């Protein structure tokens, strides 16, 4: 016999005012190691629609009626966290010109010592997920390294990039070393396009959480998160914690507001590596948000990388800095596969080069350096 629901089901016939006719997307995390069946049963009986279960995160996403039902679920014995979905926006402080296609090594690749590390490692076999606007996987500087992906927004479509941001990030991480365009930090890495942001650079937090679940399910080693927002989301924190426990190293942007004291989420979470931006003069970029949670600095100003339509473009932002750190992490992990996420993070920080007369608020442990890191473990 099916047990009765813990809460009375939502009855659409009892709508007494217009507000009850509205629905809102919510994110619900079941307590760790608690089977989801009872919670699922109660959600179904409460008429929660568009319900999706995220297996690796043990979480649900669905449309709740705007009434007291969500508050009731806060007291459900199996529920760990529940909150409203929010919008997230990618912000690019500077977008430069489209540049020529002749082979070049961007200044950021040189600054992090990638070339000196290529003798030992080029990132082969490391699976890097790029949660972003997708990737232009037909780009001649990327297509050899694109190994798969997913369109979180519309799973029936490919994760192709119609914005450009994700393609630019992917190029800095792993553009192929050939006779064309640019070279990435880890030119033989396995790249996966995880499209959670649309062509306007906006995303739902629920889609980003789905992207993290996909990353765990598909065994990503490293996840690049070149985005940020100011909302202290408890469900997002839980997703980050569970991904770290699953062995995923997550690297995130400190933010582009140029403020001091409070960096953005998810970089602010202890479970991520928070990255600020420097320019060619080894100065912290004016747009870079800084604070005590910053772990590392990396090149992020006037970075040339891949762009849709087989082209290349110069962009600035902490997004670009994150991509450099992700690439260096891939180089290290490719050579030292036994490293845990905690050990890999420690190698990145212990091998960084500190900038003089700049506080740890701005640079964390210093500027990431592949040449030193590759010989550290």
Describe what you observe in this structure.
- It is a single chain.
- It contains 11 helices and 16 strands.
- The chain has 2 domains: 12-85, 2-Layer Sandwich (Alpha-Beta Plaits); 89-373, Peptidase S8/S53 domain (Rossmann fold, 3-Layer(aba) Sandwich), CATH 3.40.50.200.
- Helix content is 25%, strand content 23%.
- It has helices at residues 37-45, 69-74, 107-111, 114-117, 165-174, 205-217, 234-245, 318-335, 341-350, 360-363, 370-373; strands at 23-30, 49-54, 59-65, 79-84, 87-89, 94-99, 127-132, 146-151, 190-195, 202-204, 222-225, 249-253, 272-278, 296-299, 303-307, 311-316.
- Helix 5 (165-174) runs parallel beside helix 8 (318-335).
- By secondary structure, the chain is of the alpha/beta class.
- Residues 1-20 have low confidence and may be disordered.
- The chain has a 7-stranded parallel β-sheet with strand order 8-9-7-11-12-13-14, with helices on both faces. A 4-stranded antiparallel β-sheet has the order 2-3-1-4, sandwiched between helices.
- Strand 2 and strand 3 form a beta hairpin.
- The longest helix is centred in the C-terminal third of the chain and has 18 residues, at 318-335.
- The protein is globular.
- It starts with 22 loop residues before the first strand and ends with a helix.
């Amino acid at each position: 016999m099916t047990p009765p629901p813990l809460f009375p089901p939502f009855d659409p016939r009892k709508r007494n005012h217009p507000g009850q006719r509205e629905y809102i997307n919510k994110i619900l995390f079941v307590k760790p190691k608690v089977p989801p069946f009872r919670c699922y049963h109660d959600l179904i009986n409460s008429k929660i629609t568009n319900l999706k279960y995220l297996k690796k995160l043990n979480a649900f996403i669905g449309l709740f009626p705007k009434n007291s039902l969500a508050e009731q679920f806060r007291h459900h014995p199996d529920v760990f966290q529940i909150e409203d979905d929010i919008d997230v926006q990618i912000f690019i402080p500077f977008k430069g010109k489209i540049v020529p296609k002749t082979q070049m090594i961007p200044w950021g690749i040189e600054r992090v010592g990638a070339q000196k590390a290529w003798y030992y490692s080029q990132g082969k076999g490391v699976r890097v997920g790029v949660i972003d606007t997708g990737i232009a996987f037909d780009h001649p500087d990327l297509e050899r390294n694109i190994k798969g992906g997913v369109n979180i927004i519309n799973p029936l479509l490919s994760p192709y990039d119609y914005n450009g941001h994700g393609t630019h990030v992917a190029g800095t991480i792993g553009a192929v070393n050939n006779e064309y365009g640019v070279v990435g930090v880890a030119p033989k890495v396995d790249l996966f396009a995880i499209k959670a942001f649309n062509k306007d650079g906006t995303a739902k937090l629920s889609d980003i959480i789905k992207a993290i679940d996909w990353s765990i399910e598909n065994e990503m080693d490293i996840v690049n998160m070149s985005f940020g927002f100011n909302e202290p989301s408890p469900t997002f924190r839980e997703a980050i914690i569970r991904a770290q426990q699953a062995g995923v190293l997550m690297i995130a942007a400190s933010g582009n507001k140029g403020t001091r004291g409070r960096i953005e989420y998810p970089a602010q979470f202890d479970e991520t590596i928070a990255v600020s931006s420097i320019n060619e003069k080894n100065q912290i970029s004016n747009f870079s948000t800084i604070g005590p949670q910053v772990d590392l600095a990396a090149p992020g100003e006037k970075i040339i990388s891949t762009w849709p339509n087989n082209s290349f473009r110069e962009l600035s932002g902490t997004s670009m800095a994150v991509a450099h750190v992700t690439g260096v992490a891939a180089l290290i992990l490719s050579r030292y596969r036994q490293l845990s996420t905690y050990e890999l993070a420690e190698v990145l920080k212990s091998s960084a080069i500190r900038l003089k007369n700049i506080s740890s608020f701005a640079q964390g442990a210093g500027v990431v350096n592949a040449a030193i890191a590759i010989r550290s473990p």
